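Sanity check. The docking grid for pyridoxal-5'-phosphate depends on where the pocket ends up, so I'm generating a full predicted complex first rather than guessing from homology. Inputs follow.
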Amino acid sequence: MSTSKKSLQIQKTYEALFALEDLREIFRQSLPAGFDEEEQEKFSGTVARIKSILADLENGSGKPACTRVGKLDARTREEEFINIHPIQAAGRLTPEARKAIISYGDGYSTCDYCRKPFRLDKITRPPIEEFHQDLAKFLNMDQARVVPGARRGFQAVTQSLLEKGDCVIVSSLAHYTEFLAVEVAGGIVKEVPLDDNNLITAEAVALKVEAVRKETEKLPKLIMIDHFDYQFANEHDVYGIAKVAREYDIPFLYNGAYTVGIKPVDGKKIGADFIVGSGHKSMAAAAPSGVLATTNEWAPRIFRTTEMIGDLTKRKFGVKEVENMGCTLMGATLLSMIASFPRVQERTKHWDEEVQKSNYFLEQFQRVLGSGILSETPRKHTLTKVDTTGSFDTVAKTHKRRGFFFSDELKERGIVGEFAGATRTWKLNTYGLTWAQVKHTADSILEIAGKYKLNIN
Ligand SMILES: *Cc1c(COP(=O)(O)O)cnc(C)c1O
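Predicted complex below; grid placement will be based on this.
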């Protein structure tokens, strides 16, 4: 482990945070009136420990103490490194979310003031009901619910719409969770082929709808397309596709796993019947979290309430929504989402700059001869698939560490998140990096190329 000053200070920060939790526990174990003698002693001892950790923290001095929690190491990846991991970038928590998590970590913490009608999205303290309205407004849809991940949003829709054997149009770049959401509902996926530029066009969707109609003598029940796919993060024509869906009167699900929370998404303008987003991928929230938004037209179907009646007790639970299993995110996950939301709303206004940083980085990246971009260019997203078969992979061929030489070199320069060992095609995401971090990452790539005598433009 690196023993740099920064590393030690990060270590000390965790020690201090954990010691504060120990202090917090003393409050939790004491009587309302205050501490007894033993507790007072423990309290004073813990405060003294925190002060000494803080002194070490300030000076970057002292020895690292153990910050393992049982079998868990403290995760310091985001503090110690620049993380370009393709799926982690926009799910990094805001400081507000981290504070919400330590405050609301207890199990059913959202339920302190749950009153009739006893449903998560109706709770006013903390302001969960208001958050649901804000979410719908943010996406310019009529209604929204939080869900445990985008996948559960797809599932709520497929299970509401499909009967056994029904077809769903998806992209040839669809995420596996879209396949599973169709499968769990008894449906069948029908993939739209890509064009030569790895794009899904509205025309290709229309042709696939026709092909399904011809084959099954029925129209597909749903069209589900990613605005930006997870493989190339290419932008697909969701406006045109929504129009095709409307012409056939097939509902359209807009998969915003890689957009909602990082770039503006306007459901009405798109013409979407359903918008699905991922909290832990793109909304700076803890996992599992996400959003499902829809129109007033579809809401009664998707958010239908239970009609089940107990045969003995005659009990019924009228307001509980079936697809949401009544309530969804009941603790810190939801509160992390709510706490991050103001900053998330703000950051979508600066998407253009994020894309600029992505393009700047890739310009530098391509100065290494033999390095290329497999995604569409210029980039319209911060996630990109790159190809270094003609550059870093040529080094890997003879290096004793094989492909790992590249991750070793990056890590040495404080960069992690590329798929360790991969030097042919791999993905990276620059979302949320400062300009200084972007430049450092670009410079590091060039420096590594120089070190191994690759040609640089
Ligand atoms: C990540 C991703 C998902 C799954 O999102 P979860 O919130 O983890 O369920 C779905 N679709 C696409 C295109 C994705 O990139």
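Relevant for the grid: The mean pLDDT is 97.
Also worth noting: The domain at 113-330 is CATH 3.40.640.10 (Aspartate Aminotransferase; domain 2).
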